[in-house]
Amino acid sequence: MRNNLPPGVSLAPQTPAADVRLVRTDIAGLVGFAERGPLAPADSLSLPDSSTLAIRLTSWAQYRTHFGGLTRYALMPYAVRAFFENGGTTCYVVRVASAAAGRYFDGAQTAAWSLSRGDDASQLTTLTQALKGGANEVNLTVASTAGFAPGAVAGVGVSASDLNVRTVKTVVDAQTLSLSGPIDKDRPAGTGVWLLTAAPLAAELPAGQTDVPVSGAGLFRPGDAVALTNDGIVEFATVAGIVNAATVRLAAKVRGNYPAGTLLRKQIAGLQVEARSPGNWGDRIWIDLTPRDPGATVTRFDLRASLQPGPDQTQPPEAEQFLNLSLDPNDPRYAPAIVNYDVNANVNGSNLVRLTIPPGLVGLSNKDLNSYFPRALEGGRDGLSAVTVNDFIGADGDYRGLRVLEEIDEVGILLAPDAINSGLAAPAPPVPPDTDPCQKQPEKPPDPVADDPTAVPRVLLEVRGVSGAGAVYQAMIDQARRLRYRVAVLDTPDNLDPIAVATWVKKLALPAAFAPFAAVHYPWLKVPDGLTNERGSRRVPAGGHVAGVFAQVDNTLGVQRRPMSRCNSSTTSARTSPARSRAS
After folding, report:
1. Which terminal CB of the chain, N or C, has fewer other CB atoms within 10 Å?
2. DSSP secondary structure string, 128-163?
3. Which domain, by its residues, includes 500?
């Protein structure tokens, strides 16, 4: 219809031209398991900066810097490596692990260690009569016994870091406490008498255990620094969580043997060093604090951090050094400001560790620095054993996994290699390298799984009658369909023949409308495996290779060309020959 508008102007509606823009498919977005890297908590209601969780990478070397090397129970590292080896130039990676809300022991945890500033104690009274150390005197004459009860833990000393500790046996009267044993140091009248946060062991605690039987586990909280003492040797540890009313679980196995009655004493945390991201990789970080001050109290120190070799024998070594650090927040060399990575403050900092200095800490003990360092961090957990579909996909108000990638406009390919991860079988034993028998043989790399019960993933649980992998794939395709410019690359489980693959796709229950936005690639491929050595190999899904070929074709021939009849680099063979399977 033509409308004639005075003075002689005509307006004729035009049908808009069809949108025929070609969508680029050279930038991939991957979600999956990794050795290390940033993780969003389950209560991440906002996403101020997606670049802090979705890391933009332009090489396999960059992946190694941010996320570590190959791991036994993760498929995503192999997919990223294959993407770059097959022509990919840019990808975004989002790490997935269990947030485990309400299940502390299942979630990813960060390895850490902190110096103690003394026992967590409150001074309740003072001695009114001098105490002779070493004598068989077990009674304390004090100004008041208020606040003490049988079974409480009392300490005598001038500060929380200078206490002789005993259990209160009985409260004799308003000015007399009877202790479980004598105090072994002379204490003059006026010395403080303190009430400690501590509980005795209810049974013997042998070396190599993490669960501590105590009478009063409710006194402790996850993250508390604690101490155990036997034969004058003090062992510090961190509380991982509370198993029940009578059991405290530590972040690492105890090294000593402790008889029943030994006190588990909560400590006042001092300077803390923790891994930059969660995972058992942090247990391989060794730290050394070297005092720069000659006196008993240290205000300036050097920090050295190194990452010991892990399961990936091809991963380059990492070591860092930060000199002349200060405890003073007003000093230009204030330790956290120099060491801690801060993207907003444009501080590169350490790729391995972070420092926390509590308020009021003005000095470190020179003796402690020389006694407790160098040492390894402890308590890291991968958090893979309880991963759920929600950890992969996130949601509005839950910025994890695929929900983070939705904020990255330039991503054109979606992959989730570990959606079909079912706890991969251990790789074949390494092929012994050619070595000189007269030379010292290299040490076997540590096994990160040995002390981490959360390191092995399990099959994702069903969601409303759909398999876990199917639910993740549905979310990927739904995102591609809604945004209109993405494609989801789906991987099949291993050991399927072509007929089984077709059946598996049907079981995913994908709506027909999803078909234009997804592609299933098969079979699995055999690739070189750095977990053994250059002569070892491993089967992996083909998605990473396929995405790399997509990117290679887009960048060299143009998005209008189909990525067909292209060779996959870094592949030694296919798991199954599709041609032979069809012929049979």
Report:
1. N
2. SS-B-TTSS--EEEBS--TT--TT-EEEEESSTTS-
3. 28-104+383-434+448-583
Residue 463 lies in a domain: yes
176-179, strands of its sheet edge to edge = 121-126, 192-196, 153-157, 164-173, 176-179, 139-141
* CB burial of residue 175 (10 Å; 0-12, 13-18, 19+): middle
CB atoms within 10 A of CB 60: 17
Omega of the bond prior to 563 within 30 degrees of 0, cis?
A: no
SS (H, E, C) 529-559: CCCCCCCCEEEECCHHHHHHHHHHHHHHCCC
Do 85 and 130 belong to one domain?
Answer: no
Residue 441 lies in a domain: no
* pLDDT score, position 583: 33
* 33, 73 contact by CB (below 8 A): yes
How many angstroms separate the CA atoms of 349 and 178, rounded? 53
Write down the pTM of the prediction. 0.85
Q: Residue 397 to residues 93, 97, 100: CA-CA distances in angstroms?
A: 20, 18, 17
Strand partners, 127: 142
Tell me 214's DSSP state: B
Cβ distance 143 to 302 under 8 Å? no
Give, as one character, the DSSP assignment of residue 346: T
Residue in 576, 443, 38, 10 with CA at minimum distance from that of residue 279: 38
Residue 183 and residue 276 share a domain: no
> What's the structural domain count of the chain?
3
Contacts of 202 (CB under 8 A, 6+ apart): 213, 214, 215, 246, 260
Per-residue pLDDT tens over the stretch 149-191: 998 999 999 988 888 888 999 999 999 999 988 888 889 999 9
pLDDT of residue 106: 83
pLDDT in tens, 279-314: 999 999 999 999 998 889 999 999 999 999 888 888
For the chain, the C-alpha Rg in angstroms (whole number) is 30
Report the greatest alpha carbon distance in the chain: 117
Q: How far apart are CA 336 and CA 274, in angstroms?
A: 12
Q: What tokens does 143 get?
A: 């100004």
CA–chain centroid gap for 214, Å, is 28
Q: Are residues 417 and 339 in the same domain?
A: no
- Which string of DSSP letters, residue by residue, matches 474-535? HHHHHHHHHHSS-EEEEEPPSS--HHHHHHHHHHT---GGGGGGEEEE---EEEE-TTT-TT
Under a CB-based contact definition with an 8 Å cutoff, are residues 137 and 80 in contact?
no
For residues 490 and 429, membership in a common domain is answered with: yes
